[in-house]
Amino acid sequence: MKKKEISTLLSFIAEGLILFDKNGLITLVNPHATLLLDYTSGELLGKKLCNVVDIYINKTKIGKNTITEVIFKEGKAFNTPPGKVVSFKSRGGRIFPVFISAKSIGSTIGLGDSLGGVLIFRDITTEKELENYKLNTAKRLARLTPVLQKTSIGNLDVRVNVPSKEDEFTELFVGLNLMMDDLEELEKTRRESEQEKMTAVFAAESEKRKLTEKYSKELEKQVKEKTRELNQSKLHIETIIENLTNGLLEFDNDYQLVRINRTAEALLGVERKAVVGKKINFEGKDPTLASLVEVIGPKPSKGIKNYLGKEKSSREISTNYPIERDLNISTVPIFSNLPSKKNIGFIKIIRDITREKIISKSKSEFISIAAHQLRTPLSGIKWALQTLIQDKKIDDKQRDLLNKSLETNNRMINLVGDLLNVARIEEGRFGYEFKKNNIEDLISSIISNSEIVAKEKKIKIIFRNSKSFKPFIFDENKISLAIQNLIDNAIKYTPVNGFITIKLFEKDDYVNIEITDTGIGIPENQLDRMFTKFFRAKNVMKISTSGSGLGLFIAKNVVDKHEGFINFVSKEGEGSTFTLGLPLNKNFIHKEDEVIAG
Amino acid sequence: MNNKKVLLVEDDDFLRQLVGSKLTDDGFALNVAVDSVGVFTLLEKEKPDLILLDVMLPGLDGFQILEKIKSDKSNEAIPVVILSNLGQKEDKDKAFSLGAKDFWIKAYLDLDEIVEKINKIFEEKK
């Protein structure tokens, strides 16, 4: 191949290529080589390479004939030693790493046959840089390893040392450090929050402990207070019990006396030390315990339950010891406040009713005597006046006067009778006598009694009977009194020429006696007071001052006792209608008065 | 007129006088007593046809006298009417249980009515 052609060919090679002869003198360079070495080919040709270019292995400049000696004398190829960097220094002074490969050309026979040598080099600055970069990166990253290792086990104190010279890792390192800082901060926060939590838990526990202590102290205080209160109230109750004006005895279920108060001691003539805590001997003959035994009552044959019942019971007894007394004994069972409600004993309350009895008896006697004592002179006057009225020797004027006196006297007698009845009613001893009676006969007889008075006022009494009634049970005298009172009122408060209509009929198992008058009526605002004792309506007071105001009170009580009813309608100035109802069924009537009367 | 013998037992002078004169005027043969002593002294001598007996009396009261009369065979047949100003149910019950013929309340009766009632009793007896 011609030299020119070779040159042209070589100029296409992207590596620096230098041909030299056996003496090391450059015979050919390609453009790439001249470019890299910063010489023209003319400046290089004929010169020794080592005289124009400094060659370094690593940082050490190699000897001037090192290459030629290696390839020509040693017959080896000169290559970049492994692990080392060969660098060229261009004319401009630029040192750049190169890939270098030089060897002799031509003869394979012996060293002496060499035609020359060839040196190929390539600027490996970029490659080196890359390599350096790789190395550097590996080195840098290697520095991270321990940091990361420490971090991974939770040690966040370590930091990557950021070189003062900024490079592409600076950001990473700084970032890493920042991350570490963040982590550390997080950790710190976590620790702090943990600490806070711990502190909070401790605080809470301590608070709890304090509260518990406080509560238990409070509780203790309250218990003390309650105990004191209980003691106080026990004392209080005991004081009250001790000073009750009623006697009080408490027994357990076994008839053992638990307590006795002062009044009971006095009433029964016993001393507590002799009886408290002891079982009362029913058969005992001790006269000083007689009253106590009497208070307890007859010994129950079938145990205390049968004896006591569930409710309070009351009875009256008379005792002789220590003095004669009438006592009211109330027995109250005591029940446990446990759900079982078990009977755990009983209390006997003793009330001294001696005086009450005397007073009640005196009152009763007084009423009888008063009635008698009042009626006796009234009877005398009545009879005397009647005797006088019948005397033919007196004139009409005198007779009129005497008649008026008699009338007044009769009112007096009626008033005394009313008062006596009211007293008896209030005493509960009106003395009822319930038996079968004929209501029609009764009404007819009352009407005939009243007709004399009615005629004087020219009042007509009309009796309308719907049917014939069989006798039924009621107290004839008392019902007579009630009906008489109603008819008396009707006559009294009906003006001259009026009418009184009495209707007798049955309605809903009640016998109705309806008395209608054409009288003055009852003022509307006084209707509700009609049946109260001593009530007299305003308009009535203007007409007549007589009248006890007891008639309707008595009538109402009598009818109530019969479980009947009494009601009325009235219009002032037009008249009134009173209706009295009596039950036909005898079971409606209660028996207590019969018992008392008996 | 009828000559029926009535024994009036009444301690109140005024009442005794009024009833007594009424009965005498109406033709009854009247004896009066003011207490139990008088009653039984008279009963020894003569048996009346009717006794009008007050309750509130000095000494034995009307009920006791009634009881005594009724327990004496020689007197038990004589009708005894209580003429009193008592008059409650228990008084009446007591009187009737002791054998009283009737129970009249003075204040509620006229003298005429008393005579009327006496005559009724005598008529019943016939």
From TrEMBL, chain A:
The protein depicted here goes by the name: histidine kinase
Q: Which organism is it from?
A: Candidatus Campbellbacteria bacterium RIFOXYC2_FULL_35_25
Instruction: Tell me what reaction this enzyme catalyses.
Output: ATP + protein L-histidine = ADP + protein N-phospho-L-histidine
Q: Identify the InterPro entries for this entry.
A: BphY/WalK/GraS-like, HAMP_dom, HATPase_C_sf, HATPase_dom, His_kinase_dom, HisK_dim/P_dom, HisK_dim/P_sf, PAS
Region forming the signal peptide = none
Domain of life the protein comes from: Bacteria
Q: Name one GO cellular component term.
A: plasma membrane
Its predominant location is membrane
Is the keyword Nucleus in the record? no
Keyword terms of this UniProt record: Coiled coil, Kinase, Membrane, Phosphoprotein, Transferase, Two-component regulatory system
Annotated coiled-coil segments of the chain = 176-236
From TrEMBL, chain B:
What CDD domains does the annotation carry?
REC_OmpR (cd17574)
Q: Name one GO biological process term.
A: phosphorelay signal transduction system
Q: Does the keyword Lipoprotein apply?
A: no
Q: Which UniProt keywords apply?
A: Phosphoprotein
User: Which Pfam family, giving just one, matches this sequence?
Assistant: Response_reg
Q: Is Phosphoprotein included in the keywords of this UniProt record? A: yes
Matching entries from PANTHER family are given as: RESPONSE REGULATORY DOMAIN-CONTAINING PROTEIN, STRESS RESPONSE REGULATOR PROTEIN 1
Q: What is this protein called?
A: Response regulatory domain-containing protein
